[in-house]
């Protein structure tokens, strides 16, 4: 359905008041296209909308459609949308995010500024409290920066606090991040995140299932949270109260079969109650970015896919190749760089981290275990090594 004229009719239909996703899907299925809906007689629209759960409001919705098509500005409205740089993708388009297609009742239409998340990249949602503590702010920044620098897309809602901080640090690391809004993509919400809103469009994308111009409203955020979870391979909660909107995203992620991780906090800190409770209920414990990277690496191997390691922005091809084959330069000696970094200490047979550290030590290279794990995970994400279970790694 990539024909621009049909897209214009789909945009028109999606903007008709009272026509939600369920009605839109029903009408497109019944008439074959949004253009055919535009040309359909009112009586046929009433008949189609009068079936099933839509029966009580079928007539009213048909009247709304009839009223909406009277001005005849379908193509002009769509041209204005394109002129603003706003693009749209529907369930019937090849470009529609594959992860979203797998969830229950995915949004029929997505609008976006910038780009859509690349399917071949792993993605992590980082979420948490808006009024976060200094501890939460620091942790969100560390996780966002480190994980994004390894080529993992960061997905969040661009809210104040944990969401926005993790996304800003992901950008500073040269990574990609995607924000899902509970309003139209042409509205920066919250307004004080304007700089982040603009930067995300350059190195990621702003997404929304709501037509442009839709103001933020409390009842819109559950769908926003569902999409955040749907676009992600896993969810990380950095800081959250026991009762907060974060739980909506967590519940939806669990319904979608996604893994949830939480950063633990002090038991006397109310902002850590949510995370500690999640851990008590079985969520994964995230003590360092390497913990998440290791799990994502295992997930990528389990899917049998090679996940792209290099970020799209901020690096030349030569820089990307160097990063793939070596740990960050400040963590390596000249000898280790000459021997292709950690690859020199791996074998085709799985080796434990202790064994790898021992080999590095014999070569005169001193590494901390945390830095070793991070480097090994990056090699796995680059498709140059594989994790065979626990702390065992081998050449791929």
Amino- and carboxy-terminal Cα gap:
40 Å
Order of helices and strands: HHHHHHEHEEHEHEHEHEHEHEHHHEHHEE
How would you characterize the largest beta sheet? 9 strands, mixed
Q: Name the overall outline.
A: elongated
Low-confidence stretches: 305-340
Beta-strand share of residues? 5-15%
Strand order of the largest sheet: 1-2-6-5-4-3-7-8-9
Helix content: 40-55%
Can you summarize this structure?
The chain has 396 residues and is of the alpha/beta class. It is built from 18 helices and twelve strands.
Describe the structure.
This protein has helices at about 5-15, 20-30, 35-40, 40-50, 60-70, 75-85, 100, 135-150, 160-170, 195-200, 220-230, 245-255, 275-280, 290-305, 315-325, 335-340, 355-360, 370-380; strands at about 85-90, 110-115, 125, 155, 175-180, 205-210, 235, 260, 285, 350, 385-390, 390-395. Helix 8 runs parallel beside helix 9, helix 8 (about 135-150) packs parallel to helix 14 (about 290-305) and helix 14 (about 290-305) packs parallel to helix 18. The longest helix is centred in the middle third of the chain and has 16 residues, at about 135-150. The protein has a 9-stranded mixed beta sheet, sandwiched between helices. The chain is α/β, with parallel strands linked by helices and about 400 residues long.
């Amino acid at each position: 359905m990539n024909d621009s004229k049909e897209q214009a009719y789909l945009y028109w239909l999606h903007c008709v008041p009272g026509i939600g996703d369920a009605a839109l899907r029903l009408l497109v299925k019944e008439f074959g296209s949004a253009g055919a809906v535009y040309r359909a007689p009112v009586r046929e629209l009433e008949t189609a909308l009068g079936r099933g759960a839509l029966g009580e409001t079928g007539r009213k919705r048909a009247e709304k459609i009839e009223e909406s098509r009277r001005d005849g500005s379908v193509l002009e409205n769509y041209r204005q949308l394109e002129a603003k740089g706003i693009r749209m993708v529907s369930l019937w388009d090849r470009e529609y995010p594959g992860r979203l297609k797998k969830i229950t009742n995915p949004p029929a239409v997505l609008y976006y500024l910038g780009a859509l998340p690349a399917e071949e990249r792993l993605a992590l949602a980082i979420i948490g409290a808006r009024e976060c503590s200094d501890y939460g702010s620091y942790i969100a920044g560390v996780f966002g920066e480190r994980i994004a620098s390894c080529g993992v897309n960061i997905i969040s809602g661009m809210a104040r606090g944990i969401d926005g901080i993790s996304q800003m640090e992901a950008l500073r690391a040269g990574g990609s991040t995607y924000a899902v809004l509970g309003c139209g993509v042409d509205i920066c919400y919250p307004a004080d995140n304007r700089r982040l809103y603009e930067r995300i469009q350059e190195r990621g994308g702003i997404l929304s299932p709501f037509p442009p111009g839709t103001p933020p409203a409390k009842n819109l955020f559950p769908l926003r949270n569902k999409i955040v979870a749907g676009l992600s391979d896993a969810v990380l909660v950095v800081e959250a109260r026991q009762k907060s909107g974060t739980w909506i995203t967590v519940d939806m992620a669990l319904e979608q079969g996604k893994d949830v991780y939480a950063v633990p906090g002090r038991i006397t800190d109310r902002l850590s109650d949510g995370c500690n409770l999640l851990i008590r209920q079985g969520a994964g414990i995230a003590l360092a970015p390497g913990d998440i990277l290791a799990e994502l690496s295992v997930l990528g191997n389990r899917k049998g896919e090679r996940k792209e390691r290099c970020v799209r922005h901020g690096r030349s091809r030569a820089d990307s190749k160097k990063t793939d084959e070596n740990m960050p330069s400040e963590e390596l000696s000249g000898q280790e760089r000459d021997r292709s970094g950690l690859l020199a200490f791996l074998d085709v047979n799985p080796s434990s981290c202790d064994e790898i550290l021992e080999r590095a030590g014999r070569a005169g290279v001193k590494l901390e275990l945390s830095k070793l794990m991070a480097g090994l995970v990056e090699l796995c994400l680059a498709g140059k090594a594989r994790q065979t279970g626990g702390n065992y790694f081998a050449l791929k």
